[in-house]
Amino acid sequence: MNIRTGLVIFAVALIQGGVPAIADPLITDEEAMLPTPSAVKNARGISRGPSIRYEMPEPVAAHKPFTFKIEFEPHGKATIDPAKVQVTYLKLPSIDLTTRIRPFITHKGIDFPMAEVPAGRHPLRIDIEDSSGRTSQATLVLVAEK
Question: What is the pTM of this model?
């Protein structure tokens, strides 16, 4: 596609009411092919730190957009600092996904619409810290079927 064709498609989309929705890869095919550590389990830590809540659609469709949503709940008068949220894909070696999803992280959680993953089991670790310095960690396994 040349630049003129791309501009025409973009202009038509704007006239019709917006920019066309394009899914963003949460995990790439190449990353998914890396080996997974054997000790990865679904787990939620119990601590005095902030809570991490999630409901993963089980399973999602491979290479089809879905909403990746995680909620953070600080305790007391603490707040969550979005800059201190880290998302790691638990592979060998581990892959830091934080910069990829940074635009979707707020003090309330992660709301990544139009996320996309390849088929397979994708273990993720979420680390957060509140304004009182308390940390929490949750591990989840996102499953995508063909």
Answer: 0.77
